[in-house]
Amino acid sequence: DTEVTQTPKHLVMGMTNKKSLKCEQHMGHRAMYWYKQKAKKPPELMFVYSYEKLSINESVPSRFSPECPNSSLLNLHLHALQPEDSALYLCASSHQVGLAGSNEQFFGPGTRLTVL
Amino acid sequence: AQSVAQPEDQVNVAEGNPLTVKCTYSVSGNPYLFWYVQYPNRGLQFLLKYITGDNLVKGSYGFEAEFNKSQTSFHLKKPSALVSDSALYFCAVRDMNRDDKIIFGKGTRLHILP
Prior knowledge:
By secondary structure, chain A is mostly beta strands. In chain A, 0% of the residues lie in helices and 55% in strands.
């Protein structure tokens, strides 16, 4: 299985809602990533988990809360979001063997989030 | 600061013609360089990477890229374009200070004309 899956595909939520995005991979990758992508822009890194530990938080507001329950799963918990948080949220994973940072990332199809 | 630059917002090429998507980089030390492609409403797909070794790197879907250290470039090429190559292409470089992070260029939209 060489796929990263993300659910849901689309999500519409109000500013007072709590929701979660889910990401799963079964490639044995030990690094997992959350990105935010606005239309026609490059992905912006939000969080990196390495061996199930948070290794990078790119100063993301606390209304976004990541969680890595095990090596195959990555969640992003959302609470009290703002309309400007509407974007495509991408999950990715990669090996962590060999030269550090030399491994390509495998991306999921993304969750299209709309905050009303 | 480390960065990659993609000087063209859009590149138009006739089907069957060779294509080039440009990328230049600015890093200290030896760069780790990547190309990704994004089709509409999809995640990114890895095309190829340069870590070390041969300056000509071959990747998926017939794409290749040439690493040029003197010009600090890593241009993406394909000998004969297909309409299905139309997509958004991102060049990226590993952040030399943070192993798990890559820095993306702004992207180049490739439009193949039938």
